[in-house]
Specification:
The structure is a homodimer.
Chain A (H helix, E strand, L loop, with lengths): L4 H9 L6 H12 L4 E2 H11 L5 H13 L3 E4 L7 E4 L6 E6 L5 E5 H15 L2 E2 L5 E5 L1 H8 L2
Parallel strand pairs in A: 4-7
Antiparallel strand pairs in A: 1-3, 2-3, 4-5
Helix pairs in contact in A: 2-3, 3-4
Bound molecules: manganese (II) ion (2 copies) and zinc ion (ZN) (2 copies).
The structure holds a DNA duplex (30 and 30 nucleotides).
DNA sequence: CATGTAGTTGCAACCAATTGCAATTATCAT
DNA sequence: ATGATAATTGCAATTGGTTGCAACTACATG
């Protein structure tokens, strides 16, 4: 029926309930594109069901994050952003601290780092969605000229 | 005189002022050990000079962070932590999401990642002090038994 | 040393996110 | 289908952190 049946299963088998509020939040995350703030998700859910509370949104994002179905990332914009984690399209971001440009970084870089850490320490890192700050090529060259 | 003369120089040459409040905050960071919360720094400064405001602490941490003299890190404890960045002792942390154990990770791992990213994209990442969440060896083995 | 000015401070108001709690509800086991 | 139970919700209060602003001060310059 709904296209969230898999997620509903995951919720139930981990002792959580599939409430209507959660399904709406899930829908916003899966059909809205890319990085969403809690306020954006809240707005979308509210349009359909005006009684939701923002705390329900945050708590749901909390459980989805625990289950590693969504990533929570500080992209330096002030508000934390959330993104549905798709195993096929795992990626990260490079963010310039000078011009704020955001680009994507292939997951492979972090996959390799994760494998090394795992091999040498036994610790298995969660590498769902990183924001790496720094200086983009353009800004770095400008800075080096001084 | 004071042991913060280098930092004072950095502040001045970047167009900032070396105010008494800032020097006290600096002192707390350099002489206090390891990860400090804004509240801890505030408390220490307040003991010496009761009129400081917490906003001054946050703003000072902001400029020190911009200058990359301190790192700001979410270690998952609720409050953001700040640590003086010592070039010689650069390090990162692995934090278990199950048992909360915190260990150190040698900087070399991230140095290598940074070099790769830089070589292939021209982006120069700031790799001052990362917190990498995941499952420690013990918790991972326990989880795999189920 | 005096002075002009940009940078900083304390305060109060504000904002994003979290938490305690009593009422409600999804789910499981009969 | 019904009832017991644990999880969840909405609400209100709270916390950690930020911001606008008028008063103040560090410091560069002459
Ligand atoms: Mn992304
Ligand atoms: Mn550290
Ligand atoms: Zn840039
Ligand atoms: Zn552990």
């Amino acid at each position: 029926m709904s296209c969230e049946t898999d997620t509903v299963k995951v919720l139930r088998t981990t002792g959580h309930k599939a409430t209507p509020q959660r399904l709406m939040i899930l829908g916003a995350l899966r059909h809205g594109s890319g990085h969403l703030t809690a306020a954006e998700i809240f707005g979308e859910v509210q349009a359909e069901y005006p009684y939701v509370d923002i705390s329900t949104v945050y708590r749901t994002l909390g459980v989805l994050k625990e289950l590693r179905l969504v990533s929570e990332t500080d992209m330096g914009t002030g508000d934390t952003t959330y993104e549905w984690v798709q195993q096929q399209e795992r990626h990260h971001h490079l963010i310039c601290r000078n011009c704020d440009e955001v680009t994507s970084l292939d997951h492979q870089y972090l996959e390799d780092l994760g494998a090394e850490i795992m091999a040498e320490s036994g610790f298995k890192p969660d590498l769902d969605h990183f924001a790496i700050f720094g200086l983009c090529a353009k800004c770095r060259l400008e800075a080096e000229q001084n």
